[in-house]
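Worked example 2:
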Amino acid sequence: MATVTTTPTAVPTRTRTLLTAGAAAGPLYVVCWLSQALTREAFDLSRHPASLLANGDLGWIQTANFIVAGLLSLAGAVGLRRTLTGRGSRWAPRLLGTYAVGLLLAAAFPADPAAGFPAGTPADYAEVSLRGIGHFVAGTIGFTGLIAACFVMAAHYRSTRRTGWARYSTITGIAFFAAFAGLSAGAGIPPTILAFGAAIVLAWTWITAICLHHRR
C-alpha cells in the first residue's frame, strides 16, 4: 500500500492575522481581569466572579474587556474556519463564535451587584434584575458554545491523529463544564468561585494555543 504524504501549505496573511487576534484575546482578558481584581476596592477573587467587575464607577473597564475579547475571539473563529478541514471544520468555528457572541452579550447585560461588590453593597445582597437574567443567559450561551467547541475540536484532532491536542481539548472541555456546573450549583461559595476562575484561565489558554497552532 502506498503511503500518502501531505505537504503543509502556507497560511494566508489575512488568516494569520485573524488567528493572531484570536490568540491575543485570552491574555488580554486575563490580564485586564486580574489587574482589576487585585486593585478594585472590595473585590475578592474567592467571592466574586469576573462579571461583577462591570459594576461601579470603573465598571466600564470590564465591559470593554468583554467587548474586546468577544471581537478578538470572533476573529479567531473566522480564522479557524479558514484553516480547518475535515471533521468538525464547520462546527468548531461556529461554536467558538457562539462563545464570542456570549462575551458580547455579557457586555450588553452586566451582572448585578452581589456579595459586597461594588463597595457599599450589602454582603448578603443577591437581588436579580432583568439585566442580571440577561447576563445569566449570555453566560449560558457563551459557555455552552465553548464547552461544545472543546469536544468538537477533540473529535477533529482524533480524526487527524493528533492525540495530544485531542486530549488537551477534551480535558479543557470537561474541566470547564465541571467548574461551570459547580458555580451554578455552589451558591457562590469560595471553592466554586476559585475553581471557575481557574477554569476561565484554562479555557483562554486553550483558545490561544489552538489559534497559534493553526496559525502555523
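The CA atoms of residues 12 and 215 lie 9 Å apart. The radius of gyration is 18 Å.
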